[in-house]
Amino acid sequence: MSLYEASAPPPAPRPALVGAQRADVCIVGAGLTGLGAALTLAEAGTGALVIEAERVGAGASGVNGGQIHPGQRRDQSWLEARLGEMRARALWDLAEEARGWVDATIVAHAIPCERRHGLLHLAHRPGLYRGLVAEAEHLARRYGVAGIELFDAKRLPEITGAVGYVGGVLDPHHGGHVDPLALTRGLAAAAEAAGARIAETSPVTEIERQGAQWLVRTPEATVTAQAVIVTGDGTSGRLHAAIAAHVMPLVNFMIATEPLGARADRVLKGAIAASDTKHVVNYFRRTGEGRLIFGGGESYGARLPAGFPERVRRRMLAIFPMLAKVRIEHAWGGTLGITAPRLPYVRQIEPGLYAAAGYSGQGVMLGPYTGRAIALAIGGDATRFDLLAGLPVPPLPGGRLLRRPLLVAAMIGFGFLDRL
Q1: DSSP letters along 343-392, please?
Q2: Spatial contact of 70 and 100, defined as CB atoms under 8 Å apart
Q3: Is the whole model's pTM more than 0.90, yes or no?
Q4: What would the pLDDT profile of 283-293 be if each residue is shown by its tens digit?
Q5: CA 242 – CA 216 distance, rounded (Å)
Q6: Which residues face 207 on adjacent strands?
Q7: Where are the domains of the chain?
Q8: What is the DSSP pairing of strand 248-257 with strand 292-299?
Q9: How many CA atoms does the CB half-sphere of 12 hold within 13 Å?
Q10: What is the mean pLDDT of residues 20-41?
Q11: Which GO terms label this protein's molecular function in UniProt (predicted)?
């Protein structure tokens, strides 16, 4: 069981969908994206029905690391070089708008999700640290980002006891972390209070066009809707070939320690989050009660592999050897989605059929607002959606048969580079 699940009792189950139903908009997946869309639609008076295969937050939204990174998954210099300064600036502004909307929603609906500020990016090679410093200076100079603090090798022990890094950059305001399952459940309650409907344990089996409308099938029900939004990050490819061609699922692993007490400050100074520059990234954060949540390693099958907690623990001890005798009290994982450029795949695949997936680790902040952007587009304001839909996300190489073997080979190679 995840620490998130153990920290708070789940809400009462919502009934499965039965019989013939109608909705203005049918949303597949009760995660951050789907619920951001449902809340926006319901507040505008549009009839929204969310269909979830399991329980609210059972997918990527409820099992991830909870980290909130500023901007997009790619840094601003990368975006400027490929998209131009104007589009890069618009994407930065969109991410800032997303962060503000999520924070305001948490406050407005009193969502108890431990929202905390502070994100440390750690470099494991000198050249990568110089790159982090250059990007921090670029953000300060061109985007007005204030307060970023640099920690070279001499200063790094002031903020973390992590070993194997040559420096880090702390963003105390834009970055941070949250309990993602609590946030997801809170968005669900807010959407329902606004008038949206949510059905659980209702896996969607088929989506088909019927004239000017869409028909969504589950084992016990059908839904007729004017528009459909398919979410689910790494699990939605089974519903449409276009999503499968652009988004690859992978399974991530996480563990949580016992409360560390006085040792917590030796790990991270304060309840902040951190991630590193490795290709197979390590990411960790300190909770309010002084636990360390640590994520690292990936699998390319459909299930959590046997023995994964010890695998993640070894990665943790390579960075925090002082935790050798600390108990691991929780271990969990789930399926996320990645794309070739690590940018989200957001599209109107066919008229009235929208998709959002492949956040590549950036979905906690961007997911809810992407859902909002799609909802606003359905309502007539496509400004934000068009910006996201214009992101360059080509199909994964290798086609249907070879893309998974190619991904596995690439990630094995990246892991080898990390070890070197």
Answers
A1: S-EEEEEETTEEEEE--TT-HHHHHHHHHHHHHHHHTT--HHHHHHHTS-
A2: no
A3: yes
A4: 999 999 999 99
A5: 17
A6: 216
A7: 1-115+178-247+339-401, 117-174+249-334
A8: antiparallel
A9: 1
A10: 98
A11: oxidoreductase activity
Contact predicate 97/376, CB 8 Å: no
CATH H superfamily, domain 117-174+249-334: D-Amino Acid Oxidase, subunit A, domain 2 (3.30.9.10)
Write out pLDDT tens, residues 393-411: 999 987 655 556 656 655 5
Tokens of 82: 């490929």
Query: CA-to-CA distance for 110 and 314, rounded, in angstroms?
Result: 38
* Residue 317 in this model has a pLDDT that exceeds 70: yes
pLDDT in tens, 378-398: 999 999 999 999 999 999 987
Distance spanning both ends of the chain, measured CA to CA: 34
Residue 216 exposed, middle or buried by CB count within 10 Å (0-12, 13-18, 19+): buried
Between CA 260 and CA 258 the distance in angstroms is 6
At residue 320, the pLDDT reads 98
Q: Which of 183, 311, 184, 303 is nearest to 249 (CA)?
A: 303
- For the stretch 116-174, pLDDT in tens is 999 999 999 999 999 999 999 999 999 999 999 999 999 999 999 999 999 999 999 99
Chain centroid to CA 70: how far?
13
Equal CATH topology for 1-115+178-247+339-401 and 117-174+249-334: no
SS3 254: strand
Given a cut of 70, whether residue 260 has pLDDT beyond it is yes
The answer to whether 60 and 334 have CB atoms below 8 angstroms apart is yes
Long-range CB contact pairs, 285-291, < 8 A, 24+? 285/65, 285/66, 285/67, 285/177, 287/3, 287/114, 287/256, 288/114, 288/116, 289/259, 290/259, 290/260, 290/261, 290/264, 291/3, 291/256, 291/257, 291/258, 291/259, 291/260, 291/329
